[in-house]
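Lecture notes, structural biology module. Today: joint structure prediction for complexes of three components.
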Amino acid sequence: MARVVYREIEGGAGFAGLLAILVAFTLTGIASAWYMEHYGHIVTGMNNRIVWGMPHVFAVFLIVTASGVLNVASLGSVFGRTPYKPMARLSGLLAIAFLVGGLAVLVLDLGRPDRLIVAMTKYNLKSIFAWNIFLYIGFLVVVAAYLFVQMERRMNRFAPSVGWFAFIWRLVLTTGTGSIFGWLVARQAYDAAVMAPLFIAMSLSFGLAAFLLVTMTVYGLTGRPLGVHILNRLARLLGIFAAAVLYFTALQHLTNLYAAEHAGVERFILLEGGIYTALFWIVQVVLGGVVPIALVYIPATARTWTGIAAASALVIAGGLAQIYVIIVGGQAYPLILFPGMEVQSSYQDGVVAAYMPSLAEIGLGVGGVAFALAIAAVGMKVLRFLPDSLSDDALDPHRQPARAVNT
Amino acid sequence: MPVRAFHFLFLAALPAFALVYTALGAPPAAAQELPSSRVFVPAPPKGKGDKCIADKDFMRRNHMKILEHQRDQTVYDGVRIKRTSLKECVACHVVNGPDALPLTSESPKYFCRVCHDYAAVKVDCFECHVSRPPVAKAAGLPAGEKERDALASFLKEGRQ
Amino acid sequence: MTATRNNPFLRDKPAPDDVPERGRRDVLRALAAGVGLALAPGVTLYAFGGPAEARAPGDPVSSKVRWGLLIDVNKCADGCTRCVTACSTENGWSDTGHPLTDAQWIRKVKVTDPKTGASRSLPVMCQHCAEPPCVDVCPTGASFKRADGIVLVDKHICIGCRYCMMACPYNARSFIHESLKDQKPYAPRGKGTVESCTLCVHRIDAGRIPACVEACPAEGGGALAFGDLNDPAAEISQRIAKYASAQIRADLGTDPGVRYQNL
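The predicted structure, tokenised, for the full assembly:
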């Protein structure tokens, strides 16, 4: 392979405009957080039954995506797929950016964000949440080290071993994120070991989709060459990952359906849950699973930028819907205090909890995404993350000559 | 190139920051010794009792440690020592407003805030703890009822 | 640091003058007995000789004791909410017109068997589990179980993440969604933290019984009983030993300190 030349992205009006938009959304997010902190969570749609809402959907999405987006780097240094190696730096940068964005949302949603120092100094080591704090901070350190050994030539020889370490770390991290829900024994919708592998599959899928979208956008805007063959290879991988998500989702629900105890919550999510049922079947399964898989395998769309971009965007939309159904849908279904009995109280026992996200919550969540992208944009501008060319010939000169493609 | 520009800006900002800090925020170390100094020194209002549980100097430096120690003892061990409790501090250091009712921590004239505002240190206690003694009811009651309420509140507090 | 270590105000035992003198208390005791029912509402003679009397002031709580409640559902009348009102008055939480976001430390739950239509009404509050899931999941350790079995939130280190509310099988916790004013001095509560029934820990520390138990009307039979589950001589333990009782979601193995009879 020819020597890869990395270069900062070009400035200019396009970059400035994009950054301005991202900064504006980030500021909106900060303003939303301030508003929520000042008035209290009364200004959100969250309540005593839906205690985690829209901010958590975005935060979990960003954190899961962060670990998944690192897989492009792993493909190169762990699985030895040389054509992907030039993309490893961008993969690492995005991993850090998405994790920081997700954590920012999570922290700013706290009831007492001013006590962040408490979360950093007092740990209950029995809490999976506390473990996750270590896993997140460790992930940032490990990925930063991974970027360093890749970008500093004298350290290059350590890249494979640091890459392996980062790969294992990210698997543990996503296991931790999934277990935040998987280990909640009290709730019908959670309390399932399958949550951990499900979240790993989700991270692979959402992460690769995010990587594809960002890469296509940046290369499109900067006019650098990006081969459709390499895109197609990544997109087919995305198809496999999306199928894995569907597989684990099916496993999750089939396991629950077999247990009479969980029949109620399954009926709620799969049949009678209104918005949650619609999000599950239409957005998560069909638009976020079946359609993108078709798009990346049907020849007419599989080798086009439009097809691949649409598949990636749909996977992300499906992912947000999936996390919404897991987090909000899982809480909306009432806790079972007295199995087999009907209950009613002044505290919403026995009824499906209402939840209408407020603008502030959505603003905070979207702000987190914008913040992550702004970090990535500034990173690409000041350091050499992006190869000059990701054309198919530059990446893999020995491959079979490309067939005629529709671009 | 733009990276270097950032560095330069940052370095240039440092002396400016130091200057502003000295002018506005530096603690007036010598203010106590020099009463004629033109530096403004906060003068917290006197408490109700004869004297505080320790001398002024000690309390200025250590009141937060006493409160925190007491707080953990109370929360975790159920030990409620009246003498060092926040409730006692609040009761003794009450400052009455123009309406003769005790001020709350919302007022900048509130005992704690006089110094805390000056030092720009946020008091977190009153986010949860009530900042004035519960006297609102007793104030307007006839003498007999006032005594009854006092007795009731003593009984309510039990051995605290 | 050294300055505080030798500081007399930081000692663990109270000085003699911290504790009200016996003589003065005895006089007041007699006085209170004379005042009788004319006393302010909520103040009863339970103040004296209550179950926690054994612990000397200044002694930390002991794990020899495990406080618990026994609720006789047969004696709990449908529509009676005196325990709820008493708790709300005592601890200062109330209806602010936002039913979804207002705190509720205790609530009456109506349980109906859909097959027979038979229904029961009973209060549900923090169950003060021996193995509380809220304590396991709390990242900072703010959720904790006191040595005497009372599950509390240390609001000084609660960051408001609400993971405990996700983990609680009993829906017993509330998050404070708004700024509060004029809290009760013995029940601090503030925006952005999680709270739940404290079993009236301030009363227990003073040798008294929880407000809900006190308010449960004697003429109704007194559906609520409070006591030390570890003390075989205590009335609550004897009743539990003699008659069958149940814990809510006993299958989860959390071993609640709140038990229900005739459920």
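Point to remember: Residues 228-258 of chain A form the longest helix (31 residues).
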